[in-house]
Design brief:
The structure holds two protein chains of two kinds. By secondary structure, chain A is an alpha/beta fold. A six-stranded mixed β-sheet of chain A has the order 1-2-3-4-5-6, sandwiched between helices. In chain A, α2 runs antiparallel to α6. The radius of gyration of chain A is 18 Å and the shape is globular. Chain A is 48% helix and 15% strand. Chain A contains nine helices and six strands; from the N terminus they run βαααααααβββαβαβ. By secondary structure, chain B is an all-alpha fold. Helix content of chain B is 74%, strand content 0%. In chain B, α1 packs antiparallel against α2, α1 packs antiparallel against α4 and α3 runs antiparallel to α4. The chains are: A alpha/beta, B mainly alpha.
């Protein structure tokens, strides 16, 4: 089993510009250390219709209401920073915001994984002896001998599709055939309940036992922490 | 008379129904919509069954009202599907439940 750089195609060239936008890393850094409710705020706003910050503050009384930490408290400041970054993403227009959201989830996953293990890479292919190479790269990989990992990142549960599940499972089995261990999984910035129903419908013949699912409520597990 | 948890769960379920109606034209996702209605409906009803008579937590009434307004403003069916996953979680957090 070996990891390789992905072959750049047209999509990758365009997407690289999105990935390099400072807003992506700013949002990813904020979300990597956020609570579940703060991450839920980001998901709602980035996917929402309204760009009025007060509507969002009203919707999340535990973050911004009278019983929330007061302005100046670090938790409150983080909530405000997440709201601000999320509104910036929402303001980019439908097509662009969709690309930003994907890039943010990938960058956040990279950030969280790097807190637990390494080396962590982005957009890498995994090759196995005697097997045709996959064209599609994995979003985030951990290339650690004896403890390698491959993750695909999705903004929402609807991104969980049969081909994605199959590709991850194929990589896991390819590694096993070579006597190596490869942990494979999905990082989804969406509710676990929604991901589970999607996964069960889309899995086809793939046994789910070998596939990790990290949903919005459990993202800290990527960093080896219990959910905040 | 104060607003109860059951009142707000009913409002959240109604807002969820608005999203489901908006999402309906996406025919290839019909099964997913049904699945979402099943699991999130059950979760919300469980809260109403367990805590329905309790007064709503502070700020929850305004939160659910804002949530309903957001759901009503969504006209794109694909966005509505994504929101069918998000709205129940936001409602649960406002009601003092875990997401």
């Amino acid at each position: 089993m070996r990891f390789m750089e992905a072959r750049p195609d047209g999509r990758a060239v365009v997407y690289a510009h999105i990935q390099a936008d400072p807003l992506v890393q700013r949002a990813a850094d904020l979300l990597a250390t956020a609570t579940t409710t703060q991450r839920l705020l980001a998901r709602a706003v980035m996917n929402g219709q309204s760009t009025d910050p007060d509507r969002w503050r009203t919707m999340f009384p535990t973050l911004f209401g009278p019983e929330a930490p007061p302005p100046g408290d670090s938790a409150r400041d983080r909530s405000e920073a997440i709201l601000s970054a999320s509104l910036e993403v929402a303001d980019r227009g439908e097509q662009t915001r969709s690309q930003f959201r994907g890039a943010i989830v990938e960058a956040m996953a990279e950030c969280l994984l790097a807190q637990r293990t390494g080396p962590v890479h982005r957009e890498r292919r995994i090759l196995f002896d005697g097997r045709p190479s996959e064209i599609h790269p994995y979003d985030v990989t951990v290339e650690r001998e004896g403890a390698a990992e491959a993750w695909d990142c999705k903004w929402g549960a609807r991104g969980i599709k049969g081909d994605v599940i199959h590709q991850l499972d194929d990589a896991r089995r390819g590694a096993a055939d070579e006597g190596e261990k490869l942990l494979v999984g999905l990082v989804v910035f969406d509710a676990r309940r929604s991901c589970e129903v999607r996964l069960v419908r889309e899995r086809g013949p793939v046994a789910l036992e070998g596939l990790r699912l990290i949903a919005l409520e459990g993202l800290d597990r990527l960093a080896g922490r219990k959910p905040a | 008379m104060s607003v109860t948890v059951a009142d707000l769960v009913a409002q959240a379920v109604a807002a969820f129904g608005v999203l489901a109606a908006t999402a309906e034209p996406v025919g290839e996702e019909l099964q997913y919509l049904v699945d979402l209605e099943t699991v999130w409906g059950a979760r919300l009803r469980a809260v109403a069954a367990a805590r329905g008579a309790e007064p709503a937590p502070r700020g929850a009434e305004a939160a659910i009202e804002a949530l309903g307004a957001e759901a009503a403003a969504i006209s794109d069916p694909h966005r509505a599907i994504d929101w069918m996953s998000t709205l129940p979680q936001v409602a649960l957090v406002a009601l003092g439940e875990t997401a």
